[in-house]
Amino acid sequence: MRRPFVFAVLLLLLTVSSARAEFGAGVVMLEHAGRPVATFTVEVASSPDDRSLGLMDRETLDANKGMVFDYGAPTMARMWMRRTLIPLDMVFVDADGVVRHIHANAVPKDETVIASPVAIRWVLEIPGGRASAIGLQPGDRMKLKTR
C-alpha cells in the first residue's frame, strides 16, 4: 500500500516541478509619429501568476523578443527585477496604447520597486537598451496583437 502512495507523490512532484507558465503569445508594434519603429514577438502575461513569474530565471532574451504584462484595466503597476538575470527596459503603456514612461536598463536581481508614474494597462519588457536603440520615447504608441 505504501508503494502506490509514494509513486503518486513522486508523480505529483514531477508534474509540479516541470510545470512552466503557459504564457499567451503576441506581436507588439511600436510607432513614433504614426510610423513603425520596431516589432517584437512577445509572451503575454495576463494572469496574476504569470505576471509574478515574468521573465525570471531567463539567461537570454533575443533583441526582438519580449514580454507584455497585461493588467486588463488601468492600474498603478509595481515591478521589480528579483530573479531576473538580464537587464530589461520596462515600457509603461496606458489603456490608449500611449507610452507613458520608460525605465531603461533595469538592473538584474535588483529588488527595488519600479512603479508606473500613472495608471497603465500594459508593461512591455524588452532587452535592456533596446528602447533607446530604436528611439522610443514617451508619447509613442504600442499596438498589441495576441494570438
Give a topology summary:
Blueprint: H1 2-18, E1 24-32, E2 35-45, H2 48-53, E3 65-75, E4 78-79, E5 88-93, E6 99-106, E7 114-115, E8 120-127, H3 130-133, E9 141-146
Parallel strand pairs: 2-3
Antiparallel strand pairs: 1-2, 1-9, 3-8, 4-7, 5-6, 5-8
Describe this structure in words.
It is a single chain. With 147 residues, this protein is α+β, with helices and mostly antiparallel strands. It has a single domain (21-146), classed as Protein of unknown function DUF192 (Jelly Rolls, Sandwich), CATH 2.60.120. The chain is 18% helix and 43% strand. It has helices at 2-18, 48-53, 130-133, and strands spanning 24-32, 35-45, 65-75, 78-79, 88-93, 99-106, 114-115, 120-127, 141-146. The strands form 2 sheets. Strands 6-5-8-3-2-1-9 form a 7-stranded mixed β-sheet. A hairpin with a 2-residue loop joins strand 1 (24-32) and strand 2. It is globular and about 65 Å long. The termini are far apart.
